[in-house]
What we know:
Layout: E1 5-10, H1 16-32, E2 38-42, H2 50-55, E3 61-65, H3 72-81, E4 88-90, H4 98-108, E5 118-122, H5 130-145, E6 149-153, H6 161-166, E7 172-176, H7 182-191, H8 212-226
Parallel strand pairs: 1-2, 1-3, 3-4, 5-6, 5-7
Helix pairs in contact: 1-8, 4-5, 4-8
Amino acid sequence: MHRPALLAVSHGTSDADGARAIATLVERVAESLPGVAVHSAFVDVQQPDAQTALDGIDGPVVIVPLLLSSGFHVHHDLHGIIAGRADAVVADPLGPDALLAEVLAARLDGVGRPQAPVVLAVAGSRDERSVPDAEGMAALLRERTGRRIELTYLAARRPGLAAALESEPDAVVATYLLARGYFFDLATRLSGEHPLTPPLLDDLLDTHGIPAALIRLVSARFHAAASRLG
Length: 230
């Protein structure tokens, strides 16, 4: 069997900085995987869509969701497009994972008081399968930092971010989003005067502008799923 290609599928955003950050992540992943053809696609907003991109790839392919939890896009959109195609597989989403906790903890360093409670702001999904992933990420961040972590949502679920902050006047908001876009703008508005960390792909944590932990995570998801292709 030919070495599988990697199709990195993100949500898509109309925010230019957010789109640039995701594109840079895909470029860095490609550099870290010599000999692997790396492609990108989206489930919304941007083009190409995942189906079109998959149809353009000959041979085996691993779809890596650049998404932080399970949900409709992973289980319906991505698993749906590989139905009937034996040479394609969908990797696990990026979260929850200790590498994401590493990046979130780095974002929290120097933001607000060192031992201030942390409110983890998750985008939120109506899909029940997203809940254990969000709760798992909060637990990993709690273990990593030793701080009190309260899980909140920006949409679809409760507790909402604004309501949680009313009872946490000293809290720091940890943004659990890959890049800038609608949900980060919403988190910024809802956070008010509370310190707010940037998205996972923001700020220069290495010379390329992408946290090395995220590159390793995408690569790990690719290799784990590729092994299922036999």
